Amino acid sequence: MLTGLIAFILGASIGSFLNVSADRLPAGRSVISPRSHCDNCGRKLSALEMVPVASYLWLRGRCRNCRAKVPRRVVVVEAGTGLIFTGLYLGYGFGLEFVVLAGYASLFLLLAVIDLEHGLILNKLTYPAALASLALAPFWPDLGIPRSFMGGDTAWPLLLGALAGGFLFLLPFFLIALFNSNAMGWGDVKMAGVIGLAAGFPMVLVAMMVSFVSGGMVAVILLLARRKGRKEAIPFGPFLAAGGIVALVWGQPLIDWYLGLYPPV
Ligand SMILES: [Zn+2]
Question: Structural domain of residue 200, as residue ranges?
């Protein structure tokens, strides 16, 4: 119980940092300095005003000085990251698996928020994440997360499995962006590649299924609800993020379940 609460507080604090990053990274500003301040009146926030979730609720979502509204996204991301971390703790305990999965979940969440607000998927996030995922690929079993590719679970098969996953997820987005870059940007191509590298084959199939189905459903709902004359591209980052998180956390059990339903002949 207490450690579950610690996981939530840890996640909410990381969420708080994700909020600052989502505000500053698209503008090319530093995520470390200056200290957090009110965007409206510029007053620096005191320690009491920077407690994740609690400060927002206590101040009812407004600046203590000028009463300007704090964006609702702040508390949604803090609480959301807190819940994800709590879930990961309940599933894995605090260990290397937790660190890696929490790291990926935080990255995917940040990419999703920035895409939702700016329609951008930043290279300065996807490029390092791609490199880190390649470097990590051979070590998944050492982290306590068993993986294999083509029957092998040593370094080379695992690296190939990651590359196969990245290629498979990237390909449809690459083709769409190639023929119609208004429908899908190159950022989506790179983010899909990162998720594929992280999930590897066959778990990438879970990420693809979740992204395409959730994205497709929301697109249909928005098309039906769309008022005349409005035409906006739907940012795909949040659906990729959802697919990535589901694949990394529940990918193997979902695949085992599916193969149990339809055993290969
Ligand atoms: Zn203010």
Answer: 119-265
